Amino acid sequence: QVQLVESGRGVVQAGGSLTLSCAASGNIASINTMGWYRQAPGKQRELVAAITSAGSTNYADSVKGRVSISRDNAKNTVYLQINSLKPEDTAVYYCNARGQAGPVNYNAWGHGTQVTVSS
User: For the segment 34-43, what is each residue's pLDDT rounded down to a tens digit?
Assistant: First the structure.
């Protein structure tokens, strides 16, 4: 299995920037895609950005142009940089890893890290 640990939580002023990190451990070689999701109070969890093992990226329309996802395979870490933060970016951000271990597809989650954007 894969374990994910997020870091980079905090309170940031609107207009500022924040970088979240997600360190993966365990069966790293089985990971295909890593991504970041977020869940605001009273809302469903939504994709923010994802990156495949080949480096292909996918971004939610709501964050395109403000968010960058990157992956350091040597450190088994994925980063999410958010610029021009808005109060509506306030949410718990979750790291996600999808892969296949043998015949089993899996979907692993971190515990989440709180990001609060003050206006």
Answer: 999 999 999 9
